[in-house]
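CORE FACILITY INTAKE
Project code: CF-77B
Contact: R.S. (postdoc)
Sample description: multi-component assembly, three entities in total
Requested service: structural model of the whole complex
Turnaround: standard
Below are the sequence entries exactly as provided by the requester. Do not edit them.
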Amino acid sequence: MDYLEGLNEPQREAVLQTEGPLMIIAGAGSGKTRVLTYRIAHLIYHGVDPFNILALTFTNKAAAEMRQRIEKVVGTESRNVWMGTFHSIFARILRIEADKIGYSRDFSIYDTDDSKSLIRSILKELSLDDKIYRVGGVLGRISGAKNRLVSVNEYLRNTTIQADDEANRMPEMGRLYKIYQDRLRKSNAMDFDDLLFNTNVLFRDHVAVLNKYQQKFKYVMVDEFQDTNISQYLITRKLAAVHQNICVVGDDAQSIYAFRGADIQNILNFEKDYPDLKVIKLEQNYRSTQNIVKAANSVINKNKAQLRKNVWTENIEGPLIDLIKASSDNEEGNLIANSIFEEKMNNSLRNSDFAILYRTNAQSRAFEEALRRRNIKYRIIGGVSFYQRKEIKDLIAYLRFTVNQNDEEAFKRIINLPKRGIGESTVAKIVVTADENNINLWEVVSKVQQFMPGRLAAPIDNFSTLIKSFKVIANQKDAFETATHVAKNSGLLKDLHEDKTVEGLARYENVQELLNAIKEFVDNPENEDKTLSSFLQSVSLLTSADDEKDTDTDKITLMTIHAAKGLEFKHVYIVGMEEDLFPSQMMLASRADLEEERRLFYVAITRAEKKLTLAFAETRYKFGRLKTCEPSRFLNEIDPAFIRMDKSLNGREAAAATLVKSMTPRKPTVVPANLHTPSQDFVPSDTSQLTGGMKVEHPKFGFGIVKDVEVQGNDKKARIDFEKVGEKTLLLSFAKLKIHTN
DNA sequence: ATTTATATCTTTTTT
DNA sequence: AGATATAAAT
């Protein structure tokens, strides 16, 4: 058992303790993944059938990596371990057992966009004020209920919740929840939360089914336990109820998904639920230098709610944490890019040794530009992913509707694509007709003459004939052939092909790439079910870390801190260390404590192995206008012994004044980012500089003289007398003006 | 029904 | 800046 070599005492104990309930509290960088991997390998090595092992991870990517590592120890048998995210594993089970809870196995999975769109339609139908009932808020409320396993009926019955909603001026919330849920069911669709909620329902109402899986999963393991919600916890508890071999691994200090219903309380409850629980703490950090570990500890110790533990390391002291001050967000990008270039040369590192971590996806822009300019390769994880693109969602919607004709959201997306002369009002009418007659969407569409005779019947009829023809193909052919057929015959591909612009070409290629992905899916021997339906379910559960088919691995990684969980890099840059950004304004506004934000900072720091650099900007564009920023309070929370700061100053001032590290220090650029078309006659115009009497040119209205500039709150308006068209009032932030120099 | 212009609003993290 | 809603024009 050579895999036990090189494990420290608690690690080895965690691997060998295979029977009974076990909780592993694993500090950052303490070799948690290694333990989990060897633990599974150990089980298989000792004759446990991989079919009897369930391992729940946070991303599909983590599962795939773990599977590979186990395979190295025990061989291809490891492929049969059930390993994946909660959502993907239970979607798989729900697919098998769908009929027991009144779904068909081809149910659609709604992503957040679909859910929001559905809520938007419902709000419109009920003519509720969407200023009060904000789509995101309504969905959040419903999601919160589902994560706590509060059903529609319980929601409506619960007086506390009702009072709460009324206090928030949303008395109809319960009704919305009910209608939303009815509509999902009618669409034969589940949203993300339903996958967990319905699994709970399945296991509650169908003892035989529960027994089946209890027998199957003799060993249950949960990674990132601190980020599970009640709904997830109850599923695992039920599954492990017979054999009691449940092992959870987590770190309360790294709980960063409370906004999604994650509950650290689960860790505390776990001890109550399993009185003979064994707890093992992994506290030795193998990842980072002393300075990084100590700096991280100094930060997390500011939190009150935490299980005390002592993360320590034998690693070298390492360099101090650097702090970079930039005058603007663009300069921040430049300075970081320069720093990476320099570090890479000095220490002969590869691009893949670096990561840039930020709080929000929107921050990536400045870094992308700076890196591109320097020809440094990078990859962005998350953000607008491949599967979020319009052309991809369009084709997927077609495929979804081919598989499930009651998928309302897919229907809305494709009914007028390509244009069939069926507008918004017609779509609403179809949905309402289905609702009034208490029939499914597809009934109305396929028998349109009967329900909605008239001018629009013909195009709708054509549409349903088209879908029927797709369905015939889907029943005979595999996912790839069906998808290719649909792409060609729906007219989508033709539309894109005719678009000869650069973007159009890219979109066409994206669709081709989707078809390639489907081909790969079909060709992959690990996928037993090669139907379109199976492909669609796997695709809708990809995590942001997953959808990456990038063969070139030597790239700098750019991502949010959330996406960085579980990863490590030699050199980490945490950027945007500014008040209102990190900690985020929303966290500051809601008077909740900043503990989760602080844990997020802790997670970010502990990603670094050798060197950590923090950066902040003094000014930043927000909603198109320049704002001054204050350095983050978190900078002051790092023990100054571990960070390179200017000692002559105190507190936040010190942070602000600290050395600016750069090969080529440069002035911040003053040219506005949006307008640069330098020519002989025109200068790039910062329209905010516009004053009366200036000669300007507008792309449509031609030349004109500015008569008046008026400041209106945050915006400016200009009255301009154009030679050709006379006087116009333009909003400056939108006016595509050029200022004439002469 | 669809396109185009203009006004208004946005304010995190993700399965 | 970018997305989305509304109004007006085609």
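Facility notes:
- Residues 362, 621-625, 673-674, 733 of chain A lie near DNA strand C (CB under 10 Å from a C1').
- Chain A has 31 helices and 24 strands.
Invoice: internal transfer
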